[in-house]
Design goal:
By secondary structure, the protein is mainly alpha-helical. Helix content is about 70%, strand content about 0%.
């Protein structure tokens, strides 16, 4: 089972699109950013608490959760609520 590693599948295409600077999702930058994210998460899981290795899913959940909160915050900042009082 993949478990929380799925968060990488949500973040990688968005990061790849930002790296490529295109409107659509480019396959190579998305695949490369996904590989780098998973490698970084695995290294962080092994080295964060050195004698004890964390499951990589814990690190990807933290990364994915922060990324999702950042996306929601950015979207909330873009939408403006009209003022009720005139």
């Amino acid at each position: 089972m993949a478990g929380p590693i799925v968060f990488i599948a949500l973040a990688a295409p968005q990061i790849g699109r930002l790296l490529a600077g295109t409107a659509g999702v480019a396959l190579a930058p998305a695949a490369l950013s996904g590989a780098v994210l998973l490698l970084a998460a695995d290294l962080a899981a092994q080295l964060l608490l050195a004698p004890v290795a964390l499951p990589v899913g814990v690190v990807t959940t933290v990364i994915g959760g922060c990324y999702l909160i950042g996306l929601l915050g950015k979207r909330a900042a873009r939408t403006t609520v009209p003022s009720a009082g005139r």
